[in-house]
Amino acid sequence: MTGCLRRLWIVFAKEIRDHARDRRSLTLALIYPLLGPLLVASGLYMAGQTLNTNYRERPLEVPAVGLENAPALAAHLLAHNIQIIPAPGTEEERNGEVREGRLPVVLVVPAEAKGLDNFTVDVITNLGRADNLRATARLAEVIAIYNENIARARALAAGLPGDYASSIKMHKINVARDANIAVFFYNMMPPLIIFMIFLGGVHLAIDSTVGERERGALEPLLLAPVERWVLLLAKSGAALAFTAVTTLVNVSAFRGFMGLAAGSAEQLTQPPSWWVFVAIIVISLPLMTIAVALQMSIAVITKSMKEAQIYLGLLPLVPALPGMVLVFQPVNPTDLTVAVPVFGQMLLIGQLVAEQTLDPRQVAIASLSTLAAASLIFLLAARWFRREKMFVLG
């Protein structure tokens, strides 16, 4: 082992040993990465419990006004397990009850509907509340079935085919990966994984630079025959090791917890295989390097631990927020988009979660561009680290 590598290893081992003794570092590395997977898996589990019982078979209580004017519709609703209950008397009261969430939906049948087949009903709902969506959708679905039955009966009575009123028939062919509500939860994993990557080594980056400077422990290190760039590289390596541990725990927890949650209901799609999550860790390696480079750079130039904690606390949000946007607005990777540092890995991880085939060329482009950016950031940090002002408090 050459002298430079030996010095690098000594400082690296010292940082690992010191921070392994720190309970806060271990807690951050082993416990905090479990919180995101637990939260997402809990949501998936609750969704699975809801799907375990077919909601169309469960009784639904719908407050209604004037349903006596349409007895055929009333019988149809009862036949589809929709129980009719009295609604508040005045329109203002009905609107208020729905607006405040005390009633999910109110059906109003006008008096003119008596004896007629064609009439308009009012459905009072508040779609600003997520818990009202299912009741509203189910009521609309049952009324649509009633309309189809009436149209079919009229066509048959006129000697026409039963589907005469349906001029265009649509047959859906779904080529997605057994898509259901579980896929939405799986798509939330990439931004949360990236968030943890940019958070995993924060504590060590702060403590080993500006923290040691404030405690007066950094200056004695400078008296040792170690180049400053080697010193910073060794500290960065220790932060990278902690980042790798937190990422491994985080990704493994996602696969384990999501698998358990998906197993709670047969209707839920199982998460991708363990090999996909191994690939996610491999794709994330360049992300870990640029995350550590940014962390060390910010920690080096800040004047106090408090300032560093503020900046580095906000750092994980920068890559995670675009990832949350991609959950709802997916972007197809191109050679140009994957060349953007961090964003390229984000797109590739999204492809892995969707179990799509990666283009090896795009993987290479994304990895090289992110590693190049990480190297440039580290060189800037090393330059700042050589400045004497770095070791002046305040």
Summary keywords:
394 residues, mainly alpha, 2 domains, four-stranded mixed sheet, 17 helices, 4 strands
Give the tally of structural domains.
2
Radius of gyration: 30 Å
User: Uncertain spans, ≥5 residues at pLDDT below 50?
Assistant: 173-179
Number of strands: 4
Q: Roughly what fraction of the amino acids lie in strands? A: under 5%
Describe the main β-sheet briefly. 4 strands, mixed
- Count up the helices: 17
General form:
elongated
Q: Give the helix level as a range of percent.
A: 55-70%
What does this structure look like?
The protein is elongated, with a radius of gyration of 30 Å. The relative contact order is 0.12. Helix content is 65%, strand content 5%. The model is unreliable at 173-179 (pLDDT under 50). Strand 1 (60-65), helix 4 and strand 2 (82-86) form a beta-alpha-beta unit. With 394 residues, the chain is mainly α. The protein has 17 helices and four strands. The protein has a four-stranded mixed β-sheet with strand order 2-1-3-4, sandwiched between helices. The chain folds into two domains: 3-30 and 179-391, no CATH class; 55-157, D-Maltodextrin-Binding Protein, domain 2, CATH 3.40.190.
Summarize the structure.
This protein is mainly α and 394 residues long.
